[in-house]
Amino acid sequence: MRAQFRSRIRLVLAFIVLVALSILVRLYFLQIVDGQEYAQKADRQFAAGGSGLFDRGAIYFTRKDGTLISAATLATGFLVAINPQTITDPEAAYAAIAAVASSTLAHDAFLAAAAKKTQVYIEVAHRLTDTDGRFLAARAIPGLQVLRESWRYYPGGSLAAQSIGIVSYGSGDTLIGQTGIEATYDGILSRSGDSLYKNFFAELFSNVSNLLVNTKDVHEGDIVTTIEPEVQTRLENGIAKMNQRYASRESGGIIMDPATGALIALATYPTYDGNDLQNVNPAVLGNPLVEHVYEFGSTMKPITMASALDAGVITPETVYTDTGCITVDTARICNLDKKARGVISMQQIIVQSLNVGAAWVATQLGQEKFRDYFAKLFGQKTDIDLSNETSAMLGNLSKPQQIGYDTAAFGQGIAVTPIQMIRALGAIANGGVMVQPHLVSAVRLNSGIVRKLDWDEKTPVFSPTATRETTVMMNAFVDEKLNGGKAKIPTMSVAAKTGTAQLIDGQGGYSSDRFFHSFVGFFPSYNPRFIILLYTNDPQQVTYASGTLGSTFLDLVRFLIDYYAVPPDRGLPAQSGFATTTPS
Amino acid sequence: MHNFRSPLPFSLVSFCSGAVGVLLVTYIGLIAVVMSYATLTVEFSQSVKNNEATVAVLEAKYLASVARITSTDYSVEGYAIPVVQTFVPTRSVTALR
After folding, report:
1. CB count in 10 Å sphere of residue A541
2. CB-based contacts of A146: which residues, under 8 Å, 6+ apart?
3. pLDDT < 50 stretches in chain B
């Protein structure tokens, strides 16, 4: 019995020793025999010059069906570094690198780097593809290291570039968001860099709480925007074509859901490609939609009209005598064509875009009420989730001269940002309630939790009656005036207004032949799903905004109706079941 | 002089040897597990990054296709602007989706 037990024990011991020996042999081969090869392989795969791989959260577009498409993500590839102390044939090394790398050091600079025998690590080429990197590594050129690297990549190139923003080195040696969403949400997108892997057992003994609940997972994550990539593409394409056609200094556009403030597309021209910043003019890196102020001209008239209707100082049936020009505080205000219209209704102020009429409405409203409405609409920043938002210039409304109010009534003498403008006009589209424009709908945390952002701040400005009456006027503008009535869509009511503002001439006055054009519209008029604001600065050889922006606006309206299958809200006769029109 | 006789049915030396063996194997096994865990974690992490990069390339192609379709001038491609547009109370068959 005892002998049998002993033999069993020996058997078990022999087995244990065998297992231990086999593991030791395996470790010997892994660490000693093939150790160098594995170390190099690990270097190629996971190291980058001693500082961990660049890591950062993603930014997503949201397609209309809810699918997320990367707006900013990470690309991985290889960098090439040389060790001047071990490189044996710099010429051959350079030839090998130049054969696969699209950009590397110049030949002379490479040789100079290779000659620095006091250094052991000099990076000479970046962003090699996986195939090229592995090919170069396989050649095992002495003194050449092929290391893993990752970098910020924008799959859409220039798509929504100013909104998405860029990352670059700030004051330190860390890449941080500098503009756009990259800057606003840098705290969520940034990664601490030590999370590549953890030693489970070390964590278990030293930092149990962090192992169970990682505090970084609570605030690090990805950003989900409200930008729809196909709508964004359409808007950018329309803006770029229009800008090039009229040789404007700059142009821009915004498409927003007036009920929620979700920005579906924002575009400016000129723009840039976030993947290629080497030759970009720094001036275009900013976002004019929130950083620049403009005198918008007659697109301000619906706001003046809604204010007066809301205050009860006029009704849609009110009439006035239009004389073509008036004198206020020794200054002269005229309709753009300087023609008198005689006794006409309020609607015609919007339809015919009469400056004298808008000034008359402002006078009826009175300075105090006018100031109150405009301060409510433009007095504060929108608090949009983009960096460097600027404030409106409303200085004329703090002075007692009536001329400041009369000109503000048709959008001259005060300057606001495009984002402020669409928010204010959105109040007309949204039953008098102003919403908060925003770009980000949710944060997808590393923990897996999707945290929806709260953008429910709503500011009542006008009564629903006043906004409906203003909408009727804007709707009449499209149906009767725009393109001579040919812009009318039989099955869809569209409310819109053009604006043609004179640009300042730099000598204290306004230019007579240089203009800022704007165009705002929303549809369906009485339950809008979209509001569109377009502008172009200093277009050449054209006077009126309907000429520059009208076709772009209508193209966007038709696209959105088709793309989102917006159901008709009018004009389908019950008998025939269809309506026809001749395209303009 | 009495011979000491262990009450256990096996020798203490054998028991200690076995325990040392087990501890040794456990120790080596622990090292192997930690190393494997670290390697796998890094490999998985890198694999996720590679997959994300691959997806990004596909997304770039998709966005480039959208841009190409949007910028296509159909009149240049030989299509004519319709003489009359008809609006019907059904979903457009030319809608993108």
Report:
1. 8
2. A44, A78, A79, A80, A128, A133, A134, A136, A137
3. 1, 96-97
Q: How many CB atoms lie within 10 A of CB A377?
A: 25
User: Interhelix angle for A418-429 vs A464-476, to 10°?
Assistant: 100
**Residue A387 tokens, joined:** 């960096």
Q: What is the pLDDT of residues A406-459, one digit of tens each?
A: 999 999 999 999 999 999 999 999 999 999 999 999 999 988 889 999 998 999
The three-state (H, E, C) secondary structure of B53-82, written as one string: HHHHHHHHHHHHHHHHHHHCCCCCCCCCCC
Q: Would you say A107 and A86 are in contact if contact means Cβ atoms under 8 Å apart?
A: no
Q: What is the largest CA-CA distance in chain B?
A: 125
Query: What is the amino acid identity at position A553?
Result: F
- Is residue A430 a contact partner of residue A495, using CB atoms and an 8 Å limit? no
Q: Is A387 exposed, middle or buried (0-12, 13-18, 19+ CB in 10 A)?
A: buried
Q: B96 vs A562: CB contact, 8 Å cut-off?
A: yes
- Residue B82: list chain A partners with CB under 8 A: 583
Convert the pLDDT of each residue in A281-295 to its tens digit. Answer: 988 999 999 999 999
pLDDT at position A512: 86
Note the pLDDT of residue B87.
67
A329: left (phi over 0), alpha (psi -120 to 50) or beta: left
Sort strands A459-460 and A450-452 into parallel, antiparallel or unpaired. Answer: unpaired
Record the tokens describing residue A250, joined without a space: 């700059």
Alpha carbon distance A450, A448 (integer Å):
6
- Classify the phi-psi angles of A506: left when phi > 0, otherwise alpha if psi is within -120 to 50, otherwise beta: left
A440: left (phi over 0), alpha (psi -120 to 50) or beta: beta
Q: What is the spatial distance between Cα A582 and Cα A377, in angstroms, rounded to a whole number?
A: 39
Selecting from B32, B62, B88 the residue whose C-beta is nearest the C-beta of A578 gives B88
Query: Across the interface, do A13 and B46 touch by the CB < 8 Å criterion?
Result: no
Q: What letter represents residue A408's amino acid?
A: A
Say which CATH superfamily domain A229-276+283-563 falls into.
DD-peptidase/beta-lactamase superfamily (3.40.710.10)
Q: How far is CA A360 from CA A298, A303, A304, A414, in A?
A: 14, 14, 10, 18
Cβ–Cβ < 8 Å for A46, A148 = yes
A217 Rama class: left (phi>0) / alpha (psi -120 to 50) / beta: alpha
Q: Does residue A155 have a cis bond before it (omega within 30 degrees)?
A: no
Sign of CA dihedral A400, A406, A409, A414: negative
Look at the block and give the residue holding tokens 């350079």: A94
Instruction: Mark yes or no for CB contact B21/A156 under 8 Å.
Output: no
Of A17, A148, A581, the CB nearest to B85: A581
Q: Are B46 and A46 inside 8 Å of each other by CB?
A: yes
Domain ranges of chain A: 39-153, 229-276+283-563
Homologous superfamily of the A39-153 domain (CATH):
Penicillin-binding protein 2a (Domain 2) (3.90.1310.10)
Residue A397 has pLDDT above 90, yes or no: yes
Is the peptide bond preceding residue A270 cis, with omega within 30 degrees of 0?
yes
Rounded CA-CA distance A550/A242 in Å is 10
Output DSSP code: residue A445. Answer: E
Positive or negative torsion for Cα A326, A332, A336, A338: positive
Chain-chain contact of A12 with B30 (C-beta, under 8 angstroms): no
Those residues with Cβ within 8 angstroms of residue A387's Cβ, 6 or more apart along the chain or in another chain: A165, A179, A180, A183, A184
Task: Determine the Cα–Cα distance for residues A235 and A247; give it in Å rounded to an integer.
Answer: 18
**DSSP E strand stretches across A11-166:** 59-62, 68-82, 122-128, 144-153
The pair of three-digit structure tokens given for residue A376, joined into one six-digit string: 């409510």
Chain A environment of B54 (Cβ under 8 Å): none
pLDDT of residue A48: 44
